[in-house]
Structure formats: structure tokens, C-alpha cells
Amino acid sequence: MTATETPAAARRITTAKAMSEGIALEMRNDPNVFVMGEDVGAYGGIFGSTTDLFDEFGSERVIDTPISETGFIGAGIGAAVEGMRPVVELMFIDFYGVCMDQITNHMAKIHYESGGNVNVPMVLMSAVGGGYSDAAQHSQCLWGTFAHLPGIKVVVPSNPYDAKGLMISAIRDDNPVLYLFHKGGQGLVWMEKNPRSIAEVPEEEFTVPIGKAAVAREGRDVTIVTLSLSVQHSLDVAEQLASEGINVEVVDLRSLVPLDTETVLASVAKTGRVLVVDEDYRSFGLTGEIAAVISEHDPGMLTKPFRRLAVPDVPIPYARPLEQGVLPTRDKIAAAVRELMA
Amino acid sequence: MNELNRLDLYKQMVRIRQYEARILQEYHADKSPAWDIGAGLIPGEMHLSAGQEPAAVGVCAHLKKGDAITAPHRPHHFALAHGVDMNAMTAEIYGRLTGLSHGKGGHMHLFDPDNHFSCSGIIAQGYPVACGQAMAFKRQGTDHVAIAVAGEGAANQGAFHESLNLAALWNLPVVFVIEDNDWAISVPRSHSTANTSNADRALGYGMPGVRVEDNDVEAVFEAAGAAIARARNGDGPSLLEIHTLRLWGHFEGDAQAYRGADLDTVNDRDPIPRYAATLTELGDLTEDDVATIAAAADAEVDAAIEFATSSPEPTAADALDHVFA
User: Which of B130, B136, B321 sits opposite A116 (nearest CB)?
Assistant: First the structure.
């Protein structure tokens, strides 16, 4: 015990804890908010997203479900249309295959099909990403797949502050929000973590707006447009390259739907060089979308050809050299930036 | 459990049949070319429910305002029996701005939040949603129930089985209704399901299951009453399988060549004349009544068609609205 108390503003927590704090605040604010999913109760979520919620709110509001994703995601939708605000966890986004009909044909379309008369205010949160040898069925990001389908807001926090603020915004939103958190950014004790996955987060409630990107680091030479764990990697690279005299701006998209094209375009207009870093598959996805946004606006903005770094259209492999070979690692990001500056 | 009112059951069945018969006529009336499913005042697929009225009417007779229904691709009978406004529903089927969804949904996607009615064109996928509605009703401390409707072909979908397990596990106020009309489009039940009764499957999930034979509206009324009362009292879900009749094709334009001898007797099994005969025998119905009831239904249907056809169509720009709230 020490005589001094840590001031609240300096309190540092993991991304996982920040998510669950956001949920807890909204559960205290609104009795319609409840949580359900596999192992969200006493376990606290396999990746910590519901840490401590069970102790505070009990099994009536933090509900462990059977392994039955179509059943409980559909139940989340039904509860939402009747005025509840469920926060439902799909343990890994890779499990989308067993419940995609509920997500895309129901969660995403009911508002539109009803001509705006029925709202589906639910949060579907799910763990994404690789880097720890979980192989092809437990390591994907897939945000591009969901962002492609109309009717779902998609948010992708990269750090503890945004994780909490975006969670509160997502729960308060009257639309279905897919909240994708990277396992490697959760600050888990059992996985290699970037120091940026533990950070200062206010204890009180605050929101981070959905649909607003952040300039995570200002720079003048080259823009990295990225999201999720790749923001942390890109910030590490930016620090490293600063010593080589390369001044990198990092744009953290934070939301894919709606996409903040203004912040992207403003940054690219300033630097004239862009690298999009995406842990999702390369083709028909986010990197191509950003290229299209720039070209539709003004292809003349770029002083160097558009560059992208993404998973090269292969399933995520298991062995460490294979997986590290396809993920957008720091060395690959640094190399791509150097090429843009050459 | 509501009192049996035979005349009300009959009137509601006739109302639905007159509606479906008129939609059938309107659907084909101006198709040019006649084979083009996308042409005409009512474009797209059309799944009509003629012959299945006893299922909807027998179940809905026990529902009250605030109870929910999720219906499948063949939804009109349940919509009308549950109180969905005929004008707004018809306008939706015609794709008009005054429709339930301003023309965005069409006949397979009818949403009436006021009556907690919705449908989905993906079979069995309304079942999980009904579980969630039942969760909400329970959490909100109401005695409302959710009715999940699907055909016998849907009972081999994972969503069906997941939903039965969830509802039993969480003791949800849901009644799962299977309309067994013998045909999953062209595939007879005997070619899709080894078990001849889905009521048996319900037992496997820890809930009561009842199979009602003969498309008998009073038998449906009785079985549904027990299941709905059980849900309303907090005693949990039930499954009700109703052996009913698909009087017409899977969708309009379906020549039904696959149906063989089954088609020869189909009109003899029409539940509406049969129930009229029963009521006449009981002294509850005269020939004049039959005509009067049909005429009243026709008048309501005429007005709904007139409302729909005189309503404005949406414009292309309207397609961009309502993606998000």
C-alpha cells in the first residue's frame, strides 16, 4: 500500500477492459442493455470483452449461450426489434459461416425492408485477426466482407480509448453495429501485446463518434491509411522512420461504415503519397476501396502510385514463418513506406 | 384461452381466401408477356396461402395486441389473421409508397411493427428472431407471446433446431408453428424427413409437441389455445405441427406437374367448403350467410386493391433511404 493515489486521468487499462467498461456503463444507464454470447459470463469473454460484467450484473443480464450462433444472434435481433439493446458476441468473426443469414439477411436488412419502420439497435461484437498461429479458421479479419453488405455499421477500434468510446456509441446507436476487436490489441496476458494496447482511459462515460477517422500521428511525407492492430504497428513504424527523416502520417479509420473519406482525402492531399495497410484479404476489399475513393475524388492528388499492403489472397497459414510472411508486419510496412519515399 | 366462435373462424378464413383469390387474379391479369414473373402490376414471386387458412385462423384467434408473429415467404394468411391492415399490406404487394414498407419489402417482407408482425423469405430464419422477441417480452415483464411460423420443409434447417433448444433452455414464451402442406416446393415430405411427425422432434428438445391432422380449424384452435396459454402463463414453448393443404402452386406460375395424383383430389380437400358444410349442419350457417360473408370479404378486398392501385409509386431516389435509422 502506498499513501499516494493514482489520479483517475492517469489510469491505464487494456483494450479488453475498456470495452467491458463501456458496456457496464451502458448497462447501468439503460435496463434494456444486456449481453449474450458464448463464454461471456463467468469467463468474461474468451478475449476479455466482458471482463467483470458477470459479477456486477449476474446471469440475467450477462447470458452464456449454447454454441448456437444462428439461434442467439437471431434472438438478439428479435430482442432488438422489441426495444431491447442487446450486445451479442460472436466469439471469432471466422464463425460467421454458421450464422451469416441472421447477420446479413436479417440484422442488416430489416430496417430497410420495413421502409424504416423497424429498428434493430444491437451490437454484434467479434474478435478478429491473426499473428499467433491460430491458422485459417481463427485468424481472419473479414471486415471488408461485412462493410460490403449494406445495412451494418462497422467499427474497428485500435486502442483502449476508442474501444470504450466506440462501444458506448455502438450501444446507443439505433442501427446494428458490428464491433470488431483485434485479439492482438486486447492487451491479453496470454498473447504478445503492443504497449499501445494498454493506455489511459477516463473512468467516466464518453463517446467516440461512429464514422469519424482519427489522425493517430501527424506527418507530411506519406499517409498510412489503416485500422485496428495495424494502427499500432504503423505507429511503431512511424516512430522508427522518423529517425530516418521520413515523416509519416497515420490515419486510423476507426469506422469502415460509414467511411470517413474526408479525413483520408485531406491527409492524402497533404502528403501526396499513400499506403493502405490492411490485415484483411487484398482483393475486392478495403485497400481497393480507398484507392477508388482517391481516384474518384482526384487521381492527381498522388505524386507516387497508390500502394497497398494486405494479406495476399491466401487463407491465413499456421506455421510462424508462413503466417508472418503474409501478415502486414512492421518490417513490411516500413519497406513499403521507404519505397514510396524512394 | 379464448372461447370458440365458429362463425368468426369461418369469416376470417373466407376473408383470407377471397383476398388470395383476388391477388391471384390481379397477379396474372396484366403480365405481358404472360410468362414474365417480373412484369405486371404485381411483379416478383407470389406465394399464396389458399388451403392453409385453418392454420393461421386457428392460431391467431388466441392472440392479442402486442403478441408477435414471424411468418415465412408465404405470409398473407397469418398477416391478415393477425390484424395487419389490408390496405397497407396490399399497397406493399403492389410496391406503392403507401405500403407497409413504402414499397421496399414486397410480399415476402411484410413488416407491421404496430402488430409485431414480420416475415422473412429465408425459411426457418424467423424462428430465432421469434425467440428474441419472446426474450424481450419476458424481460419486459409482459405476458405476450411470439409465434414462429414455417413450413415442414423448414424443419430440417439448423435454425429450427437451434431455436427449439434455445426456447426450451430459456423457457421462452414461443409457439413454433409448422405448416405441413406436404410439399417443399416439389419435394414431398416423405423425401425430406424420416420422422413423420415434427411433434416427436419437439419432445427431443424438451417441449410438448402436438400434430394436428386433417386441416381442421377447430382442432387447430384447440391445440393452439393450449400452447399459447402455456406460453402466456410462463410455462414455456411448444411446437404445433398442422397438417394443412397447399391448394395452389408453390408460387404462381408453378405448373405442379410433379404433384401427380395428389392434384386430382386437392379441391375435394379444400377446408373452406368443408367447414361451411360443418357449420350448416350445426345450424350456425345458412346459404344466404355464405353469400353474405363472401360479399363482405370481397368488398373489403376491392377497397384494398383500389387503395393500392390508386397510390403513388416510389421513385428511384427513394431506394437510397432507410439503409440506416
Answer: B321
Which amino acid is residue B293, in one-letter code?
I
- E-assigned strand segments in chain A: 12-14, 33-37, 62-64, 85-92, 123-128, 153-155, 177-182, 198-200, 214-217, 222-226, 248-252, 255-257, 274-281, 307-311
Would you state the torsion angle of the CA atoms of residues B47, B50, B55, B56, taken in this order, to the nearest 10 degrees? Answer: 70
Cα B22 from Cα B17, distance rounded (Å): 8
Say whether A138 is catalytic. yes
Give the CATH H-level superfamily of domain B6-311. Thiamin diphosphate (ThDP)-binding fold, Pyr/PP domains (3.40.50.970)
| Residues A100-150 pLDDT 10s | 999 999 999 999 999 999 999 999 999 999 999 999 999 999 999 999 999
Of the candidates A106, A111, A138, A233, the residue annotated as catalytic is A138
- Taking the Cβ of residue B318 and every Cβ of chain A, the question of whether any pair is shorter than 8 Å is answered with no
8 Å CB contact between A255 and A212: yes
Domains and CATH numbers, chain A: 10-200 (3.40.50.970), 214-341 (3.40.50.920)
Residue B190 near residue B220, CB atoms below 8 Å: no
Question: Measured between beta carbons, which residues in chain A are less than 8 angstroms from residue B133?
Answer: 78-79, 81-82
pLDDT tens-place string over residues A204-225: 999 999 999 999 999 999 999 9
pLDDT tens track for B209-264: 999 999 999 999 999 999 999 999 999 999 999 999 999 999 999 999 999 999 99
Contacts of B85 in chain A (CB under 8 A): none
Contacts of A295 (CB under 8 A, 6+ apart): none
Say if residues B139 and A34 touch (Cβ distance below 8 Å). yes
Report the sign of the C-alpha dihedral through residues A161, A162, A163, A164, in that order.
Answer: positive
